[in-house]
Amino acid sequence: MNPLGLAAGICGFLAVALGAFGAHGLEGKLSPEAGEWWATATLYGLAHGVAALAVSLSDRDLLRRAGWAFVIGAAVFSGSLYAMAFGAPRWFGMITPLGGVSFLAGWALTMMAGLRRR
Fold it and tell me: Which of 18, 81, 82, 104 has the fewest CB atoms lying closer than 10 Å?
């Protein structure tokens, strides 16, 4: 079993399912601001789920760590935006940047892996 690949698949599945739900099930029910949060959460969740899947195919430790940073970032970043779209208190948005930092860490680890020789 490849736990990172599984987590990447879950990220991708949830991003597509929640994106479709937002487009069809929540149409006209969210404020314009909440709709933007939803769309951003979906985009970032899907993009980083794909990135996590790509690095899950590697046996390089730095890339595997990057993948987990992408998965954690998707959960925190996208999760906090989805929660706010559903009415979580505005201060909940202070959590969102932590997910962004996790995304950045994942990309930094990816760059480091690219600079290192096998």
Answer: 104
52, amino acid identity: A
Tokens of 5: 């690949």
Beta strands in 1-118 (DSSP E): none
Closest C-alpha among 60, 100, 58, 63 to residue 79: 100
Per DSSP, the residues of 64-78 read HHHHHHHHHHIIIII
The pTM is what? Answer: 0.94
List b or e across 49-73, with b for residues whose CB sees 16 or more CB atoms inside 10 angstroms.
bebbbebbeeeeebbbbbbbbbbbb
Half-sphere exposure of 13 (CA within 13 A, CB side): 6
Structure tokens at 71: 């998965």
Distance CA 42, CA 38 (A): 6
Cα end-to-end distance, the chain, whole Å:
24
Domain boundaries, the chain: 3-115
